[in-house]
Amino acid sequence: VGFSVAAAGGVLLVGLMVGLTTLTQAYMHSQQGVQDAVQVAEGRLLELRQSGFTIDDVNQANGRLWVNATNTGAVTFNLAKFDLVVDGVVRTSSITAKTVEGATTNVWPPVTQLLLAADHGAAPASVQLVAPNGAQAFWRS
Amino acid sequence: MAGNVASETIFFIGAVVVATGLVAAFAGTVGDLSQGVQERGTALAKTLRTDIAIINDPMNVPTSPLVLYVKNVGHASLLVVDTNVFLDGTASADLAFDVLSSDDDATWRAGEVLKITVNDLAVASGDHRVRVVAATGVAGTLEFHVP
Q: Which of A4, B32, B35, B66 reaches 20 to 30 Å from A60, CA-CA?
């Protein structure tokens, strides 16, 4: 009888250990994924806090809109994912040129000036730039 | 003596079978728990990687019909069809979606702007609050005034 109880106990113990190991591995794997995502989210919030830019000037002439902006923050932006909103309507597809300090580029470093050109027929009442991380700047006439 | 050995053997086999059955049942439960933990972790991680922002100019929101521009400012793609809009707490049941500068209006990638046309909710004069909720549960809110 003792041998039978010991054998049954052994089977239960091995099963318990395998089960707990499986559960622990699943939890650790899950936690690792969540920790990675938390770091990404924290990085995104930090980047947003360090972002800043202003629209200095807007001009419209000959069917073309010119937007002058300065990167006043500590983040280098990718202009390929910037959006332009004119009079409440997204006009990103109208952008024809992006130059930073006179050079055509999609890289907008801190403390540099962006000159953005877009096709637009009338003088706007409001212009808005939106960065990939959600930071925004407004200009009103 | 032979009968005693036989009964011991039967008892031994019975004990091992019962223990194995318990372990099998336990293994099934542990499998379900492990899968649940992993699915929950994956969903939470995806929620943390996603974020959206309504980028309408609050002074100039198109209202006839209401048009919202929502930018995916997170690090993961979202399913457009699972997006919901609430105007002053009322859910819209008639939305039209357009991912700007993209041929694929089903997937809303990081950095892209989703244009949402709300066809069934009228926007009267006054103050309004609109809330857009994406597939992962992340939301963006905009308060605006209509003269």
A: B66
